Structures are given as C-alpha cells and as structure tokens.
TrEMBL record:
Organism annotation: Flavobacterium rakeshii
Protein name stated in the entry: Universal stress protein
Record-linked Pfam families: Usp (PF00582)
InterPro entries: Rossmann-like_a/b/a_fold (IPR014729), Universal_stress_UspA (IPR006015), UspA (IPR006016)
Family the UniProt entry places it in: Belongs to the universal stress protein A family.
Domain of life: Bacteria
Domain called UspA: residue spans: 1-147, 168-277
C-alpha cells in the first residue's frame, strides 16, 4: 500500500475519518492524498459571457481560500495524534465527486480509499451516505467507510470478515490479514449458516482452518435467518472494531446498506466498513 486517498468535505464525519486515514498511512508508510472536490454553481447565462467567467473565477478563488484555511486544522489533528510525520499531498478539484475520486485513484495509482460517512440516525435512513455508497460501488480499489461516531482507539483489535468460504474470498482475506498484522489484530471469519448451504461447506471450512492454522484467525459459523441482524449482533458480542466484506453480490450489498433495518443499526454506525471488490 503506497498511496491512500482521503476525500474530505471538512465535516465532522470527515475529520473522524482523517484519523483513520493517518493511522493507515503511518502503518503502511504510505503517502496520504487529501482531496477536496467542489462544484461550480448553476447560473443563468447572463448577456455577457465575461460575467459568467467572473462568477466562476470568484467561486474558484473562494474555494481555494476555504481549502487553504481548513488545512491547518487537519495538520493540528495529525500533530496531536503524533502523526505529523505522515506525508500528505493536497489536491483541490472541481466537478463530480465520484468521477474525480476515480480519476485521482487512477492518475495517482491509489491503493486504498478512506472516507467519512454519516451513519443511520433513524429507521428510514441508510447506513452509509449515497456518495460513499457510490464510491464503493464504482471504485476499483478497497474503500474504508468511517461512520461519524467511530473513534480510533489505541489500536484495532478485532476485525470481522464475512465469508462464504469461496475460493475467491481468499484474496480479500489475505489483504485483511495484512491489515491485521500491521495492527496486531485478530481476524474473525464469520459464516452465517442457512438451509441453502452447499453440500461441501463443512469440507471447505475444514480446508480454511488447515490452510490458515498459523494465522491469528478465529472461525465463527452461526445460524441465522436474517443476515443483516446476525452480523450486527456479532459486531456487538465480539467487540468488533472493523467489518470487512467482499462486494460480490449486488443484491446482498444493497440490501444490507440501503433499506430500513432495526434499531440495532445504531451498533453498526460506530464500526468502520472495509469493502474489497472482485478482481
């Protein structure tokens, strides 16, 4: 991991995520790219084109000044956390946020994205904001979404990894293990049993246990009719600090994060979500 992208709107949610971005950059000796994206206002075309240009120039200048004024506070946060040595590259762009995130990811050869998001505050609200969901859905690199209420404690201790013990889940698990090694954390593989389990699932589980026997991994196989609720209960009972998933089935992903859940969603708002994509 050489470059980490941190898109920010300088909100409280983004500032909470900034600490995670700093910690990851420090642990992997990576450069942190701080990106702020703004959009130009939609205005009725005035009689003289020069006036339109003047308006846009003023907006750009104000955005630049605002960007410059926000940076010292972030540097203070870094210094306070003992992370002032982390290399940070600042970028200010205008246009669509998701487009610019993808462009910077490609142009700067970014390996990882960390961004803040507002968690659910009511039954009709989603777990992650639509922007973060769009980034997760459209990005080619892993995305770590940090809820506003999340706090980076002394270290990440427990990382839950949801799996169906499929061969292609191994790549994501190995990447999660790299993170766990950096933070001296335990991986908790979570499999939710259901009546439609493949006939060879017990054999696959045994193979994983043997293959990863020297790694710091615990295996949990839990029966549950409601996948979302089972995950939330597991997060609470096992004191999970981070949830890791592979985005391999669109229906499940959207079901977990884009429809009304029970009040226990509140537990989830404090837990960062790391999503890996299919290669």
């Amino acid at each position: 991991m050489k470059r980490i992208l941190f898109p920010t709107d300088f909100s409280q949610a983004a500032k909470a995520a900034f600490v995670y971005a700093l910690r990851f950059a420090d642990s992997f000796d990576a450069e942190l790219i701080l990106l702020h994206v703004y959009d130009l206002p939609i205005v009725d075309t005035p009689p003289m084109p020069e006036m339109t240009k003047e308006i846009f120039d003023i907006v750009e200048m104000n955005q630049f000044e605002s960007f410059r004024e926000e940076l010292p506070e972030l540097h203070k946060i870094a210094e306070k956390k003992g992370l002032g040595h982390v290399r940070i590259k600042n970028m200010l762009l205008y246009g669509d946020l998701v487009y610019n995130i993808n462009k910077v990811t490609k142009d700067e050869d970014v390996d990882f994205i960390v961004m803040g998001t507002k968690g659910a505050s009511g039954l009709r609200e989603t777990f992650i904001g639509s922007t973060t969901a769009s980034v997760i859905s459209n990005s080619d690199v892993p995305v770590l979404a940090i809820p506003e209420e999340a706090e980076f404690h002394h270290r990440i201790k427990n990382i839950a990894f949801t799996t169906q013990y499929r061969e292609k889940d191994n790549d994501a698990l190995k990447s999660a293990l790299d993170i766990a090694d950096k933070f001296k954390a335990t991986i908790q593989c979570l499999y939710i049993k259901n009546p439609d389990d493949p006939t060879d699932i017990d054999e696959r589980i045994a193979e994983w246990r043997m293959y990863y026997r020297e790694k710091n991994i615990d295996f949990f196989n839990i029966a549950g009719d409601h996948i979302e609720q089972t995950i939330l209960d597991f997060i609470e009972s096992q004191h999970v600090d981070m949830l890791v998933m592979r985005k391999h089935k669109r229906g499940f992903f959207e079901g977990l994060f884009h429809r009304s859940l029970t009040k226990k969603m509140a537990y989830h708002t404090k837990v960062p979500l790391l999503v890996f994509h299919e290669n």
